[in-house]
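Example record for the data management plan.
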Amino acid sequence: MKIGTIDLGDRPVLLAPMEDVTDISFRLMCKRFGADMVYTEFVSADALIRSVNKTQQKLNVSDEERPVAIQIYGRDVATMVEAAKICETAHPDILDINFGCPVKRVAGKGAGAGMLKNVPLMLEITREVVKAVNIPVTVKTRLGWDADNKIIVELAEQLQDCGIAALSIHGRTRSQMYTGEADWTLIGAVKDNPRIHIPIIGNGDVTSAEICKERFDQYGVDAVMIGRGSIGRPWIFREVKHFLQTGEALPEEPFSWYLDIIKKQVEQSVERLDERRGILHIRRHLAATPLFKGIPDFKQTRIAMLRADTVKELFDILDGISERFAPFFAHN
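Corresponding structural encoding:
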């Protein structure tokens, strides 16, 4: 699969852009585990042109993570064009436009998935951003605003006509947010449309290697994007790539192997921010990781883990989990 001149190989698996998740250290970790392309956290066009420092920092990309896309969102043409040009100076491989974020502070103001209620403006922004930069422009969006307005099949053609190099589709409407199950049938319908010639990337509820292969096989998408399934589990890309290549599940590693990765995430987060903010940032990964799933009588330990406010305290708890529940891990 190619996006512009960027060759991602056969059946590539991508790390989805996620706010407060896909910082540079997490992107690099996912890349090392086999993610074929990674995306930054989404970048506010308004904040970027106002030179907000925290937003500008999101543009920092590393050669080690390439190919990498910077994702922007906004609600008016001029701002998005100016932000796109600023992003291009950071030298990403791809510029992605977010027309899919469902959260109220974004969609409620007409940006992100809010654009699904104003398709003419969405298309104008897309056309002008494509014209403004010399790197491939892609779009990420949803099926539509709600169950009565699933417009993605027609919208995909319109976006393609604007000159985008690829389209990522999350299999939910804005109204669904992240509830219910992702519906891939309309993603498949877009891919099956003979008038579509750009790569179609499917996204939504890919939480295992088996599901990923199923999505490729059943819906014929050019790539699969993994979002929440990677939080607290960056090794999912290693599992997926192995399964796609061999048709066999990758043998599990010892519990300590996974725990070391979690600890590495903690250390990198603290190094990038500071101890207090770094630990706050990593709690989302600790809460989401499947590593502790099924451990008996784990509730109090989990609470303590998520309340720890120093690296030493947190690592003592993690090491204690490994020792205290050793028989459980050995049995499982």
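Summary line stored alongside the record: The beta strands are 2-3, 6-7, 13-15, 38-44, 68-73, 94-99, 137-142, 166-170, 200-203, 223-226.
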